[in-house]
Structures are given as structure tokens and as C-alpha cells.
Amino acid sequence: MRRIGIAAVLALVAHAPAAADVEVEGRRMEVIDVHLHPSSFGRMAPNGRSFIVQSMPPFARLYAPALVNRLLDPWAPHVGIRAQADWAGVDRVVLLAVYVPRTTGYFDNASLGGLLDDPRNVTAGGDRWAYGMPSLDFEDWSPDERLAALESWLEARPEAMVGIKLAHAHQGVTFDDDAYLGVYDVAARHGVPVLLHTGFSPFPGSRTEPAYYDPLGLEAIVEAYDGEHGMGRVDFVLSHVGQGDARAMTHALSMAERHDNVWLEISAIDRPLQIDEDGAPVTRSEPQYPFVLEQLRTRGLTDRAIFASDGPQFSGMIRRYLGRIVEGMRDTGWDLDQTEAVLGGNARRLFLTR
Amino acid sequence: MKRLLCGVVWLAACGGEQGPAAGAFVIAPGEGIGPARLGMRYAELAVELGEAEGAFVADRIGFARYSDLGLEVVVTSPEDALVDDALVIGIGASEGGHFQGALRPGATKGEIEAVLGPARDEVAGTVYYPEGVGIEYDGDVALRMGVFDPWERRPEVPPMTGATP
Prior knowledge:
Shape of chain A: globular
Number of strands of chain A: 13
Oligomer: heterodimer
Distance between the termini of chain B: 39 Å
Number of helices of chain A: 13
């Protein structure tokens, strides 16, 4: 309550990280952030590193390795991912492996496995704090070998690996490229969701054609894996709700209305829209989250929307983002049950109770 | 051992027995500058150098300086203030301080590269060495140097490996 300035709505108990640190209008709520990126300065791709360093204040750039390494380390004192999550009032997190050397870099599955096995990965109550999602390297694609490696993580660590992370726009693969579809069979066999980047990415090197980021290109696959077409069932979590492009956002929302195996993950929607309904560039300053939150409520999708921050990005970001989203929920007429579901309940149901 | 040696160099320098370098701090990549060492708590640093000036801490990351020494420190802090428990994660040197050795503000790129080799990582005029030092150049001359923990260059994506049960 004392730090983010929406006192009547959201209370954060900054020094009690054990559980349920967020209180909304008198109700304590579990918060799960399903989209956090561990990594290190040395794993960053040159383009992504340059983008990130130049986004820092000029006086801080000299120390970029020290700052980046601590922010992206789950266990670093004061500013690491765990510290940031506790500060924000986030109870549990999902850490993501990524293979995106064209844009930001990588964090490989084995390194992720090491983080999840760390003895510090426990809550005050003694249960698991961080879960993970392995990913696939699409560069120099060799499906049999890569899919087997991916699947091994789901087989060996089912208690910790709770989904599969993909980022087509960063990986340079269109949603409908059938060379890469085997990943959905792996997800179906293990009953894990697939978290997919959707929406326009600001990172240099990302593909900016809609085929790479508009989830409409995924709809035939969503239908094929709905559990009624002989392919098994996969839950598709559309990360960022197609943000940045009004067409992709509308498609993400309408796909979730049409298919009960589509979920919407609401990170990175505090930025302005960049492309309008006609595909033309727009210059706006207002963030997208009020519109998205209003749409989720009026379309009856709050039972399949999931909070995430896409952090840590910079110190304090998770805390600020959570505050904005909860404030946005209040301003767009969400009730407490809906708020509680999106902050943690839906993520627990989808990812943590397989 | 290396840390100990650097400490000895500084102590000797402060003792005024090092000729022209007397009182000068050694910039040791990955370790510290003079008596300011990475990993110190601010309380320890204050014992060595006194209270810092101009502390600015936001979102748990702070900057402060010792102008007379040409030093700045970067800390992470448990709160938005420069508290005793704040952790020193970076130490910077700028012109105006008194430093000895090839690694010092005002050194040329050639002098620096004779010690560290050519830098492989550069963003907009600032280079980063994995030994734990960053250097901001103004043309061919080092304007500022920042010391931080060594970091590992891992530019090649490792092959996807399977889990071990």
C-alpha cells in the first residue's frame, strides 16, 4: 500500500514474502507471475544487449553487466528476481527458457533446470517457489533431436516444468509453419500448456510481419488440438494478448471466445498501441491495458486470463506492473472474484494442478 | 590471492613509499579500486572512505560518489536509501582522482588494450571486459572506468540437451 499509490485498492506487505502478499479491498490474494526471464549479460545477443543498455540512464551504462546480471539472477540480494517478486507481492513465479539468438539471446533448458533445482527455490512454507517452462531452439532445426530433448525435461521434471515456451516473432518462424508443429504433439502427450509470444515486439531482430505475431495464424492448430479432432488437447496461452497491433489483439480476444483451449496472458500491455485496425502505424501515448481489461471482462474471459509481467526488465518493474493491472481492473469494473482468478487462480488451475 | 595483493598495493601506496604513485589507487578489474572493494557493505565502505556524497537510490539501485577521490559507487539496497546493508556492486573511477597503472581514466585505448586486449563487447562508446571492467571512451581516451564482478561471455547458444533423471 505504501509504495504504489493505489491505497484503497491494493495493499502490498513488502516484508512478508511467505504467501498472499497482495490485498485487494480487504481480500488477500495469491499472485502468480507466469512470465519471468532469467538470463545473464553474457548470454544476450548483441542487438538485444545494445537495446537494453541504451535504455538505461547514461550514468548507469558503464555498469551494465553488474546491473543486468543481478536483475536477471533469481537469487541476487535486493534486486534479483526473487527479491523483486517478494517486493511486488508475487507469491510464485514461472521462469522461462528461451532460444532467441536473433533478438535478445538465450537461456537454455539445462540452465533453467539448474535454477529450479536450487535449494533456495522454496517458499517460507517449504514448497516450490519457481516453476519453469523449457523451450525449443528453432535455429538449424532438427526436429527429432530437439523435440526429444524438449520432451525429456517434461518427462524428468513434471513437478517443476509446467509448460512449453515459444516466441515465434523472436525465433523467426511463422505460426503456421508446419515444419515446427511437432512441439504441439509433445505438449499434448504431457498435458502441458504452450505459452506463445503474440504481438508486435520492440526488439531489434524480431519479425514484424503479422504472420509471425498475429495469433490468427495459429487458429487451425488451436482447432486441431482442442481434444476433439484426434490430435489430443493442448491449452494455448497467448502471451501479451497480441499487443501492439489492434488486429492481433482483436484476434487473440476473439480466438479465446471461440476456443476453450485458448488462454490470454496479460503481460506487456502497458505500452501504447503501434498499429491500428487497418494495419497503419499509429502514435498513441495511452497504454493498452485498460482496453484489454475491459474486453476481458465484457467478453466473459476472466476465467481464462492470466497475470504475468514479462519481467524483470528493470528494478521495480514487476511491482509497478502489478499495481497498474490491479488498478486497471478496478477502473474497468472487475469484481474481486475475477481479480483473484486472474492474479493467481487461473494460473494455478492451468499450470500448477496438472 | 589477487585480492590480497591489490590490497597490499593500496596500503603501500597510502604509506607514501611508492614514488610518483604514492596515494594512488589501483583499479583492479573484478575486485575494486583502492580500498573500495566489490561485495562490501556500505557500512564497511564508509569505514574506509567516509560517508559518500550525493547518494541517489531508486528502486533499490543506488549511486553515490567521493568527488575528491574521483570515485563513485553503485549499490543495491534493501530500501530506497543508502543504508549500511547496501551492497557494493560497482566502483567507478573518473578523471580528477589519483590512479596508478595502465588502467586509469585518461589512459589511451592503446595503453588499455596492451593490458586487457581488444574489447569484444561494445555499446555506444562503452566497452565491457569479462574480467570485470567497463570503460567509457571519449574518442581514444578513457573517460570513466567501472569495476564490477567478472562475467562470463557465452555468445554461442549451447546445443539443446536432454534432462538427466
